[in-house]
Amino acid sequence: MLIKDISKPVKRIDVDGKICGTTRYLADIEFKDALYAKTLRSEKARAKLLSIELPEIPKGYFIVDKDDIPGRNKVRIIFYDQPFFAEDTVNYIGEPILLVVGPDKRKVEEITSSIKVNYEELPGVFTMDQAEQCDELIHGDDNCFVDYKYSKGDIDSIKDRADHVFERNYKTGYQEHIYLEPQGMAASYENGRIKVIGSMQCPYYVKDAVVEALGVEYDGVQIVQSNTGGGFGGKEEYPSLIAGQVAAAALKTKKTVKLIFDRDEDIQCTTKRHPSDITLKTYVDKEYKIIGVEADVKLDAGAYSGISNIVLQRAIFAAIGTYNVENVKVRGRAFATNNIVTGAYRGFGAPQSFLALELNMEYIAEKLNIDVLDFKKKNFLKKGDLSSTGGLFREDILLPDIIDTIENMSDYSKKRKNYKNTLKGIGMSVFFHGGGFTGDGERDIIKAKVKLKKYADDKVEILISNVEIGQGVSTSLRKIAAHTLEIPLEDVIFVNPDTDRVPNSGPTVASRTTMVVGKIIENAAAEMKKNWVPHKEMEVMKKYVHPTGFSWDAEKFIGDAYNTYSWGANVVEVEVNPVTYEVDVKGVWTVYDIGRAIDERIIEGQIEGGVAQGLGYASMEVMRSKEGRLIQRTNTDYVIPTSKDFPKIHSKLVNSPYNNGPSGAKSAGELTLIGAPSAYAIAVQNAIGKPLSEIPVTPELLMEVMSDEQKN
Amino acid sequence: MNKKIKFNLNGEETTLEVNPLRRLLDLLREDLKLISPKEGCGQGECGACSVILNGNLVNSCCIPVGNIEGAKVITIEGLIGTKEFNILKESFDEAGAVQCGFCTPGMIIASYALLTKNSKPNEDEIRSALSGNLCRCTGYDKIIDAVKIAVKKGENIW
């Protein structure tokens, strides 16, 4: 099939095997004479490890711990802070101490549960407030992994001329990814090299981490992605940790070692979305123009910094959202605590910021007694305006189209007028997502390379390190290559990456794969087409080319934080039950500008899945921590949406294309989640007639808010 | 202690010497090498391990092998090639109901279990029938669409 209209849906390459159940995920792959591994974890939130009492270890069974990491016992993420195996202290409940490895799974579990760890408990830090007070120091001299500040304009100069000033605080909780396939890795020792296969988003992140753990030559490690049952950010940085562990175990035992988490372990020990505490101070003039914003953004990073500084950057760069504000002063801190480590999760800090911002717009409009949509429209960004960091918006911003379209779909304004204090409510959020890595990251850090290989039969293989995790890139990227080469889709090959075969085209994160890697594929395909000789083998290697005219100061956070933005609006309609305080979602409408859709059906799937995750986050997905211990510890008490929880999601696309995206495509995957939590919370507060300032909006919270006049 | 268990698996009489306390999921995956049932949670919450037991949808992670004596067990492997399966396969593909795929075999089994009992379910009935099967990728809409398509395509078959 030739691809004429790239947006027109095609059959997904991966669909048949998945439906027939023949697609093999890591747990479905049989390894000859494999050993099973089980992790012994810390039961204390902060403690010195005094001693570990092992039972008698039978022949053929092994203990793998810090002494078995021949290289550096730190996972390479950003700052090298988390050990593969604990050394003399533990800093969170669930921190890995050692692996028990052996041929019989049940025996391995039995040995693990009979190990006794002697701790000397130390006082811990369990909330961001405690971290900020610094009564107990667990990191540096301020308990901050990072403390960022940036500003634009001159906030002090407008304080006197503001007619209205509002200050309000917003909070969000943890969110767990619940990818349906739990985390897992297997490593084997073959001909003096270590091969790791597993469920992951970023094969070269895993490779870098394993190389450093083992202290071997870069060629001494091979990483292969197994079919991956969902990621959502949860398989961005965490797999590096377990890959290093199984690699060390394979090196020690010279056998294949397989480590697959069960669901409880996955929920209790892997990374989560950062809880946030955001204070916004907003200065408004008498024309209802927002003339200044001061934002103080705090994230709970947990015991290790991991990827938190980058998550925080995305959170603080969203400080003024889709509004044009000339004077901005922002502080962002990622606090060290003795809680579970938080990390990448679809949206990457932005859902927290937009929750605060969009609830704040409602709060201000209510206080000023003006229509919130008029207030937003008066302040919307347009082409030529500057972002919070002073970056220029170079492309058309279609917010007026987006708002008109969603108005028509949802009948928002009419319902909004009629619903006041009727227990029915409707809410709208407006939001963006900056595509790809921040600033010059694509050029200076990632430096993506893509290879296209043409075989004698004129089939062309895409060789990249980006992975199919369900989001459809194995189909979308083939379409881009086939479309440019003008060859049948069936003649383009894409298989799961193996670092022995593919160049490093970067990680599968930041909604960058289609937009950034897809563009390099498009460029490579154009060159291959130009030099095409039938029945002759050929290769084309292309590097990322940074668009000209953009500038970014990564120290001061000044300039173009992103080269392009995707935009969206969500409307959610609800009804609140005054007896049970349960919320029934009556309607969900969405409009997005993701540039040109590479496959409209795949994009619809991204939208529906992202919105459902966002609605779950705002409503039922409750996860709390007490003294460092998660209260929700299983799939039974951490619940995610089922097919009965939300009605059909209606979606439409508008298109302001990005010249540096393939066929004009922009980022899509994360954008879809960012606005749903705020639209939901706004709808609920509209229904009850009282302002909310936190998610998840549980029936318990609503009971408190609706019955307590003092609250809020 | 092992016990002789006789049951019908995907249309074939099967006799095995097994520990009756083992989970049906492990028997299927480890001993019989049937990989379509997946272990997503091991607690009967996610439905990735769904199979049909005597015509009913069950989570195979919650069924001790001792309970399947004399029973009829159906997995995806036993449906492949049937008219009903082909309709479901086409419908899931056409609707775009598959993303990461880990929940998909369970969703197909749940859809089959529904349609063999109720050949013309409405949307509420479809949503209820699939509510024991979690999907984190799709938000369910396209899976619901797929079942609706399968209802139409299989008008005289279900």
Automatic annotation (TrEMBL), chain B:
SUPFAM superfamilies: 2Fe-2S ferredoxin-like, CO dehydrogenase ISP C-domain like. Signal peptide: none annotated. The gene is ndhS2. Keywords: 2Fe-2S, Iron, Iron-sulfur, Metal-binding, Oxidoreductase. Coiled coil: none annotated. This is Nicotinate dehydrogenase small FeS subunit. Residues 3-79 form the 2Fe-2S ferredoxin-type domain. One of its GO terms (molecular function) is metal ion binding.
